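Supplementary material to the annual report.
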Amino acid sequence: MSQTSRAKPYLNPYLAGTLLGIVLFLAFFITGSGLGASGGLNRLLVYVQNEVNPEHIDQVAYLLKMAGGNANPLDSWIVFLTVGTIFGGLISGLLGRRMKFETNKGPQISNGSRWVLAFIGGALMGYGARLARGCTSGQALSGGAVLSVGSWAFMFAVFAGAYALAYFFRKAWN
Amino acid sequence: MATFPLPLADLLGHWGSYVVYAVIGIAFGMTLESAGFGNSKLLAAQFYFKDMRVFKVMFTAIIVAMTLVFLSSALGLLDYNLIWVPPTYLWPGIVGGLIMGVGFIIGGFCPGTSLVGMATGKIDAFAFVAGVLFGIYMFGETVSSFATFFDSSNMGRFTLPELFNTSYGLVVVSIVVVALMLFVVAEKVEAMINNRPQQRLPGWSKPAAGALVALAGVALIIGQPSSEDRWQRIAAESQARLDARAVQISSAEFIEYRDDSKIKIIPVDVREERYFNQFHVRGAVHVPLDQVQEKAREFQFEPANTVFVTMSNDEAAATEAWKILKAESIPNIYILEGGINGWLKDYAGNSLGEDDRVLNRQEDQLAYKFNAATGSRHPAAEPAPDFLNLKYEPKIILELKRAPTSGGCG
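Predicted assembly:
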């Protein structure tokens, strides 16, 4: 791992998982909703689209729900959760002295290839997350913990998709 | 009544409640980052069995949160009916999941982890987030071409215990035990792939695992509250409202709300089918009394401006249905005062005379004879608003809905 020597190591995964589980439980316990990420990104995007080209929003039913008329796409709890998540990552990175501009990748590919792959992977993730009505946080983690059948099916599909293609992308990571 | 989840918007105001979500988000981001999830190489290592961190963190989080949720529900602290359970759209979920899995191995992040990657300066995370935004944008542009598929196989709020027809406690205990066994396997696989001896687990891990199994066991032994238990918790307050006739609304108030475009009114007719066929109020949903509890789960998905009105021939069955729906935490439910018999007396005066009356009828039987199944074609099924000059005492007070209507992806 390319980290500075002062960087603190990551938490033991079981400890990190326990902490994450407690945060997830508190989210359910206090608010009734779990965690999520793609929903917040979605609304931030729709907000920008609405600023740039409001007529377009009014032609697409899917967008209309979030930003039609006087609806403010940022008026949603998930937006605040998402902004909080970014700040939380920043705080934890600073405390752990892990802040560093770097590109994580396998030794066999260039930074440029890694960035292109990251963009393509991100695009698939974004598209899939909207189709599945949730991402790894909103569906698999949150829905899994409250025993939704669809969330468990989704979770197995994510792992299946990733393992199925892992061999073909081994050079990107190893 | 279980106190949690809290009605945040009532307590803190609309925007004030968002502060709570921001704080939860910060805690979420901190745990993700300290778990190492800001590092794409570490995330991708999962799929080469080199570092099974993704699996370990995720499943530990799931079993911890799941155990605490169902334990607090069993103890009566938390109302599971008010918890957002992502509705199951089976095939869009599976296809979306497969696409995301492919995106995961190519891109190295998932949306949540890419946020903390970006926050800690990972350049590949910036590229990934740009990709996510592009993917979301493309979805918005293309979804109308496969809208039917996107809305297909909708099974609503559907949980594993319902699928396997077993108790919540048993499913919780089973998942905890299976996950713990898989952690043992994961440790062995990592050691084998990396060709090193197995890593020593920290000293607290075994007691912690034991404690989690014990807590899940307690949830299993206590069991999730039944409809009857749930009613007992609210009985004192709710029975008082019934006795004070605070929830029995007049037909005039019903009609006024029916014609209010800002309100969605759902008449819930709980009578036997023959009565329903003979006559029912226009727009009524037929839900026999023994199916009311099941139907409650569908009602949870109705928008916040929905008012439910239960109705039977008199009030007895409607009151039972009201209790069941109330116990299932359905907001804004009322009973039609005087039932269908009262309705017919008010609005069918012209067509139903004294000859049509049923003599010596029993409680909650229809008071009039119908020669044919008129259903809602009867003129009295939808009386015109100007029919009404009746004064009534307004009783409907719209409650803010407590149950979340969207999950983390809304």
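Chain B touches chain A through 138 residues (CB under 8 Å).
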